[in-house]
Write a structure and sequence with these properties.
Elements: E1 8-12, E2 18-19, E3 37-41, E4 75-78, H1 81-86, E5 90-95, E6 98-99, E7 104-105, H2 112-122, E8 130-134, H3 138-150, E9 154-159, E10 167-168, E11 176-181, H4 187-197, E12 203-205, H5 212-218, H6 220-229, E13 235-239, H7 244-259, E14 268-274, H8 279-285, H9 296-305, H10 324-330, E15 336-338, H11 340-354, H12 360-375, E16 383-388, H13 393-399, E17 403-404, E18 409-410, H14 417-425
Helix pairs in contact: 2-3, 2-5, 4-14, 5-7, 6-7, 11-12
Length: about 425
């Protein structure tokens, strides 16, 4: 489907200066202080397009210049089984993954597709540079799938221990190259390796949380919920590694509030982390904008112990202006933490009561809702949105004969930038 390029400008979340996006801007060029920039859309009331547009049904509030093929929007439905079990009157589940009966057809079974289709849709069709994405797993799979299907040159940088996350319905197009940091490394090591590539003009940094397209792609989960419910939810639950999805949820909430047709309130944000890797939870409970000190080796060890490895970002956008700390304050939000055993229990509960297998990270969110109810952070009468960020993988793999991608290169994070650039450039 064709779409018109979206009209938008950028706003500095610290100073609120509004300026033009002159191309792939990640920060305010007139202010060097750490701050996210936010998209300000020309269209203040969103017009939801038909389902045939996939994710681009929300294109009015996505900073995109074109629609790519193969996308699917998140699906929101009113829970029956889990809601009854928990005594909730208005529990809405926003599901991203593979669940054909619900209209969910994400081939990577993860809401990271919302990011990939938005980010890559922001790229101009005549772009010649190679996009670089560092990931702990699901993001890598999503960007690989989207770029492979749409012939967009891409370098994925992922820890070798997480390479099992790169499974696909079909073999990847040669335009996608997979670079790994060695066994025993983590997401932060992959980020460090990717940063060295970005020193070359041949490559371009995807930007992570700084990229408005990534956040506004993730924010479509809240737009899906608002369209289905007819109003802004009262509370929002999601497991977080970087917190970018929760920041995106807040920004979508602001736009819905300005729209005027969905209510004028801010939903309570309740993100969650997987024990023992809980740096943002720990900082929030200490009422501290800065993350608490953590030895690099300690962080790596804790990250390798969690059952939901996608929640293992050691450098999240927590402290930055407009980041997770701010949006939790602005939403009167709170934090939860969930153990490996608890998330396993929650995954089993969801599959039994709702009918789909879900990822470990989504299990963290389910259990955080249960805990929040017990602790009185939310009440049974409230309208609650549970962001189930991935599911249906077990079913998908039964239905399709999936293939795993292999590493094109394994490089130490200690390699010099020139060595990394030379070796990766030679792959293209």
């Amino acid at each position: 489907m064709e779409i018109k390029p979206t009209s938008y400008r950028l706003e500095n979340c610290l100073t609120h200066r509004v300026f033009e996006d002159t191309g792939w801007m990640m920060a305010d060029p007139q202010d060097s202080r750490p701050a996210l920039v936010r998209a300000v859309y020309g269209k203040k009331q969103i017009e939801f397009k038909g389902s045939e547009y996939g994710l681009y049904k929300f294109a009015d509030w996505m900073p995109v210049s074109r629609a790519l093929k193969g996308s699917c929007a998140p699906v929101t439905y009113k829970s029956q089984g889990l809601a009854k079990k928990l005594g909730l009157k208005n529990l809405y589940i926003t599901f991203s993954g593979w669940w054909p009966e619900k209209g969910a057809f994400m081939n990577t079974c993860s809401f990271k597709e919302t990011e990939a289709y938005s980010v890559c849709g922001r790229l101009s069709s005549d772009n010649k540079r190679v996009l670089v994405v560092a990931s702990a797993g699901n993001t890598a799979r999503a960007f690989s799938q989207v770029c492979s299907d749409n012939n967009i040159p891409l370098v994925i940088v992922i820890p070798e221990d997480n390479l099992g996350a790169l499974w696909f319905k079909e073999k990847l197009n040669d335009c996608v190259k997979v670079i790994c940091s060695p066994k025993g490394s983590d997401y932060f090591d992959a980020i460090a390796l990717a940063a060295k590539l970005n020193a070359s003009p041949m490559f371009m940094e995807e930007g992570g949380a700084k990229n408005v397209a990534r956040r506004d792609g993730m924010g479509t989960t809240v737009l899906s919920a608002a369209q289905e419910i007819g109003r802004i939810p009262d509370a929002y639950f999601q497991a977080v590694g970087s917190g970018t999805g929760t920041i995106a949820a807040y920004e979508a909430n602001l736009r819905l509030k300005e729209d005027g047709r969905f209510g004028d309130h801010i939903m309570k944000l309740i993100p969650s982390q997987n024990v023992p890797f809980t740096p943002m939870y720990d900082a929030w409970k200490a009422d501290c904008r800065a993350l608490l000190p953590m030895d690099e080796n300690e962080g790596r060890i804790k990250a390798l112990k969690i059952k939901a490895p996608v929640l293992s970002n050691r450098k999240p956008p927590y402290s930055i202006a407009g980041g997770l700390y701010d949006v939790l304050k602005w939403s009167n939000g709170d934090f939860q933490k969930v153990t490996n055993g608890e998330l396993t229990q929650a995954c089993e509960l969801f599959e039994d009561l709702e009918g789909s297998d879900i990822y470990s990270a989504a299990g963290v969110a389910v259990m955080s809702l249960i805990k929040a109810l017990e602790e009185g952070q939310v009440t049974p009468e409230q309208t609650i949105m549970l962001n189930v960020t991935g599911g249906g993988e077990k079913r998908f793999k039964k239905e399709f004969n999936c293939v795993n991608a292999k590493a094109d290169l394994i490089l130490s994070p200690d390699c010099s930038p020139s060595e990394v650039i030379d070796k990766v450039s030679a792959l293209f």
